[in-house]
Amino acid sequence: MMVLLVVMMATLGSTMAVVYQVGDSVGWTFNYNYEQWASSKNFQLGDVLVFNYNPQLHNVRQVNKTSFDSCTDHDPVASFYTGSDSLTLMTPGDYYFLCDIPGHCASGLKFHFKIAMPATPGGTNTNTPPESTTPPPAPKGFSYFPGSAGITPTRSNAYSSKWLPMSMLLPLFLASSMLLCMV
Question: What is the pTM of this model?
């Protein structure tokens, strides 16, 4: 029974979303290698990016590959400008971010990463989207989705964390199970 409980805990832990603060303690600003930062992460569906920055100095634009390569935001997928913005990664594909203040992107205030298509049960999925794929539009009634153009996410509707109610109940369940086994 204990083995089963340990397996359940490991499974629950491995399926929880991770919250990444972009740039770690530095945040979204100059003199930081965001491409290197992103390459050291293993982004998965459901993970959350948190951009912390001075909104008087910077902004964040989610763009397509063409805009990313040219450091422009002619048609941004999403725009962030509050200084404390969160984005839940809901679709597989390439994600491109930059600051569109003149000169900022060219000086390195940009990064890119890719989330692969989830594996199908019983095998792996080789149908990864092409590099230029843009996430699909938001479903009706969904307040925020990475592919939604012209939206303004807020902390209250775009932020999530890795806390699960199960994580609070599991220690109590384990303790009571151990007591029952002793009796």
Answer: 0.60
Return the sign of the alpha-carbon dihedral for residues 64, 66, 67, 70: positive
Residue 59: Cβ within 10 Å count: 23
How high is the mean pLDDT in each 10-residue block of the chain (183 residues)? 44 70 96 95 96 97 96 92 96 96 95 87 54 48 42 39 45 61 64
Task: Tell the burial category of 147 from Cβ atoms under 10 Å away from its Cβ (0-12, 13-18, 19+).
Answer: middle
CA-angle at 108, arms to 103 and 111, nearest 5°? 120
- Cα–Cα distance list, 167 to 110, 122, 140, 160 (Å): 35, 29, 32, 15
Distance CA 80, CA 98 (A): 10
Q: Which residue has the tokens 């990016």?
A: 49
